[in-house]
Amino acid sequence: MASTDSFPLQQNGLQASRKYGEAAQIESEQGFAYFKGQIVPMSEAKVSIATHALQYGTACFEGIRAYWNAQQEQLYLLKLREHYQRLMQSCAFLCMKPQESLDDFCNITIDLLRKHDYHQDVYVRPLVYKATCTIKLMLNTLEDAAAIYVLPMGEYVNISSGLNVCTSSWRRANSNAMPVRAKSTGAYINNSLAVNDALTSGFDEAILLTHDGTVSEGSACNLFILRNGQLITPALSEDILEGITRNALIKMIQEDFGITVVERRIDRTELYASDEIFFCGTGVQISPVVSVDHRCVGSCQPGPITMALQARYLSACRGELAKYSDWLTAVY
Predict the structure, then answer these.
(1) 6 burial class (0-12, 13-18, 19+ CB within 10 angstroms)?
(2) Sign for the pseudo-dihedral over CA of 141, 142, 148, 153
(3) By percentage, how much of the chain surpasses pLDDT 70?
(4) CA-to-CA distance for 318 and 237, rounded, in angstroms?
(5) DSSP state of 201
(6) How far apart are the two ends of the chain, measured CA to CA in Å?
(7) Phi, psi at 287, each rounded to 5°
(8) What is the number of H-type helices and E-type strands within the chain?
(9) Is residue 148 within a helix (H) or strand (E), and if so which, with residue range?
(10) Mean pLDDT of the chain
(11) Is residue 106 classed exposed, middle or buried when 0-12, 13-18 and 19+ CB atoms within 10 A define those classes?
(12) pLDDT at 215 over 80
């Protein structure tokens, strides 16, 4: 076990939380958004405070990254169609029927990015929401509306030095309480409570457990652990979001690294016995975890397999690997 000097979070309760940079801050008056069927200035994309989605969290969303390749002078949207397929599934969970089709959403996103003429890494946030102004608790008869906005984004968390994380006292929402396979805005109160407690306590992130006490996921990301030469990730039955990055990595790990991936229940104490742990997702990309609950993971440094996987994944995202060209949609 390393000394407490290995854990900056123990010395300063706010230090670790600074690994969250300014990347996710939104300039609400700049740029453009898709709103009410057209691309408009961001400053015009506004809803009433009486909107149902604002009252009750009746909306669903996606997070999509686009990666800039300076050598190729190209911006690549990552897994564009898969994200919108999941958005449409989320819509079905919330009894939503947006006017836009899957192809419409893909084309609008490309048009929106071209209008901004970005030459840097970008984050895309599509949103479908209950737009009726009412306080009634209902879904079926309300108006559905869609919006999309974009913003420059680099690292959402520090993906190089490693994260110090905790297991949260807040349990992951159960699929019998709400549809956890949907990216619904209201459900993210669960995630927000967990990560807020973690940051306040000086950690960088939180791991949520299921109501049975087994490992589910990070506050907004999936996770893998390395034990005895196998990479293990919680099964779909562990109330996880079915991550698009998670699915892509399972294939990459097995085909490119020759490592077996096992999907099963993970006990909390297995986190402490892991050789490596990493989070994965659109926002966090591949982020090594170096400690859990003040206990070192491996050597208390980012693991070699995690960092090799991170490098290959980011190369694929930037259009540097022909094998993974089907992951990408070119913007320009």
Answers:
(1) middle
(2) negative
(3) 92
(4) 32
(5) T
(6) 50
(7) -120, 115
(8) 8, 17
(9) strand 144-152
(10) 92
(11) middle
(12) yes
Contact (CB, 8 A) for 32 and 42: yes
- The answer to whether 10 touches 294, Cβ cutoff 8 Å, is yes
Chain-centre distance for alpha carbon 287: 11
Q: What are phi and psi of 104, to 5 degrees?
A: -60, -50
Q: What CA–CA distance (Å, rounded) separates 289 from 160? A: 10
76 token code pair: 């690549």
Helix axes 244-256, 80-93, angle to 10 degrees: 140
- Bridge partners (DSSP) of residue 146 are 128
Q: Six-digit token pair at 226? A: 């390395």
Q: What's the rounded Cα separation, in Å, for the pair 268 and 271?
A: 6
By CB neighbour count within 10 A (0-12 exposed, 13-18 middle, 19+ buried), where does 287 fall? buried
pLDDT at 1 over 80: no
H-type alpha helices, 181-225:
188-200
Q: Residue 261: helix, strand or coil by DSSP?
A: strand
Q: pTM of the prediction? A: 0.91
Q: Residue 150: which H helix or E strand, with range?
A: strand 144-152
Nearest to 279 by CA among 198, 211, 212: 198
Residue 123, phi then psi, degrees to nearest 5: -115, 135
116 phi, psi to nearest 5 deg = -75, -25
Cα 237 off chain centre by: 19
* Residue 208 β-bridge partners: 217
